[in-house]
Please model this.
Amino acid sequence: MKHLMSNMVLPVAALLMALVGAPSATAQTPAAAVACTQPGDMSPTQLYGLWQLVLWPQDGPGSEAAPASTGALLFERHPEYPGSVRGSVKRSTPGNDRQALVSGDVTSGEFNLDESADGVTMDAVWEGHVTPGGCGQELRGIRRPAEGRPTGEPVMNFVLKKAPGWR
Model:
């Protein structure tokens, strides 16, 4: 029995090393700092993924901490326009939820987005910027009704933050 157990120790140790990995000098050193994307260097592909949304009126009650609306945007590659994104937004509003299609880009740190509930008529325009300290993970600006649209909805401040796990 002793002979059988000693013959199993080496294969079990080898299996554990293969599964876990051998200790190395790199495993013991701190991870290198991740490079921070500067606003002017952000590319449209860095918009891909899920973003958390907070909206509050530019004039009136509400703030980022006490928003009028929250939700999410999902950006993907635009199938027709390279260098742009297309996606969808879903957000809460008083009394119901809203969904819309969005399309836009980021150029030299400036963020622009068109929003359309039906995919044809533009309902809102988003204008903002990549925040300097956000490492390409935060956008801020205003969302306003598109020209010619009823002005029932106020101009809103927005912040978009990249959802954890989407880098």
Observations:
- Helices lie at 2-20, 25-28.
